[in-house]
Amino acid sequence: MGDIILTTPLIRALRARHPAATITFLTKRSFAPLLSDHPALTDLVALERGQSLASLAGSLRARKFTHIVDLHGTLRARTLRLMVPGRWRGYRKRRIEREILIVFKRNVYRDDVPEPERYFEAAEGLDVVPDGGPPEIFTSEAATARSMAWLAAAGLGASRPLVTVAPGAAHFTKRWPVESWRRLVSRLAEAGIDTAVVGGADYAAECAVIAAAGAEHAASSAGSFGLQETAALLRRAAVSVSGDTGVMHMATATRTPVVALMGPTVAAFGFYPYRARARVLERDLPCRPCSRQGGARCPLGHHRCLREIDPGDVAAAVLELAG
Fold this sequence. Notes:
Blueprint: H1 2-5, H2 8-17, E1 24-28, E2 43-47, H3 53-63, E3 67-69, H4 75-83, E4 87-89, H5 95-104, H6 115-118, H7 141-154, E5 162-166, H8 178-190, E6 194-197, H9 204-212, E7 218-220, H10 227-236, E8 239-243, H11 246-253, E9 258-261, E10 278-281, H12 304-307, H13 311-322
Parallel strand pairs: 1-2, 3-4, 5-6, 5-8, 6-7, 8-9, 9-10
């Protein structure tokens, strides 16, 4: 999800430089809502669950693209290059530098370029450069209305500032402990702030436990909303708190200030909050980074990188940005 959101500065630049171009974006059906209302796109092609590459390639060939920008670089994308003729271009993913940093803890990156700007390498020859703006996400009126109705029914954000927190993450080592989230929500309630807990259905039980710490000043929407409704909630918030997840990038795309809790990953990877008003909280430990995108367990068994981030410091960062 985050990778897709981070492509939007390039989409915006392509549209600005080539206003008459046909610009089509290909992604999985589950991620299509992230871009379905984007005004810079002419069309969106959604890869359906179970759809074969041959079927997808056939539909792409029929469109006769003059330029094809590969921002994924996976085996599936490389296979499509063989099946769909056109002027394909990708970008260098800095895999060697990343692995040296993970394994040997030596930073040999030759640049300090965020991932959204690395994507522009794949558009070489199309005369585009980053415009300095953040990512974007556009939501339908219906999705926004559903989110606002949920807030009203939950009694959140009417007379007190609203903060969103996103406890979930695909990998365990990117998750701040549930008890730390509970302590944060409790502190925010005491400080006069309402909290909306956001997340997917697979994390709904934990989100409900976390929201309970805020009593009537917190509620969980986890599992109730799709991507656009969640984005609308983030846009309504004064601050969003999350780990290194897609929700963090979604918050930057809604121009909501971000408090980001970083554990196994580091800034050199290129995925910190992009062009956002943000506070990044992290521990300077010799074991970081330990993986490219997190894992099922801490390699050393202590998970200090996130466990030692204090809820009081997170609350202080929220109050600073909310002010």
